[in-house]
Amino acid sequence: MRGIDSNILVYALNKDLPEHTSCKELLINVVNGKELVSIPTIVFMETFHALVKVFKYKEIEVKKRLIAIIDSRNINVLDISTSSILLAFEIAENTRWEKEMP
User: Fold this and answer.
1) What's the confidence (pLDDT) of residue 91?
2) Residue 76 in 3-state DSSP?
3) What is the pLDDT of residue 1?
4) Which of the listed CATH numbers 3.40.50.970, 1.20.1600.10, 3.40.50.1010, 3.40.50.620 matches domain 2-94?
5) What are the C-alpha distances in Å from 92 to residues 60, 79, 83, 87?
6) I need a labelling partner for 84 at 20 to 30 A (CA). Which of 3, 11, 56, 58 fits?
7) Which residues contact residue 102 at a Cβ distance below 8 angstroms, ignoring those fewer than 6 apart?
8) Could you read off the pLDDT of 6-48 as tens digits, one per residue?
9) Neighbours of 26 (CB within 10 A)
10) How many CB atoms neighbour CB 89 within 10 A?
């Protein structure tokens, strides 16, 4: 299972970007059941903001497309809570990294 970030959704939904084709193909594979992905809830908000505010898409069109993605049975929408974030920090702190970050 892959995780999807807002860049992937923005690229997939904006045909004017050079990454559009490959990202759209990924979403098509998901819709067709060839892949299962997870997307945190905040990614949908980031995508909405980018498409509406930066790329000047109509809010209703972006909303419609994002709801269609959310409703896909091959997408696991992750509700990230504060406790989940804090737990992730603890896990990261207690995990030995192969290479230290600079």
Assistant:
1) 84
2) strand
3) 77
4) 3.40.50.1010
5) 39, 20, 14, 9
6) 11
7) none
8) 999 999 999 999 999 999 999 999 989 999 999 999 999 999 9
9) 19
10) 10
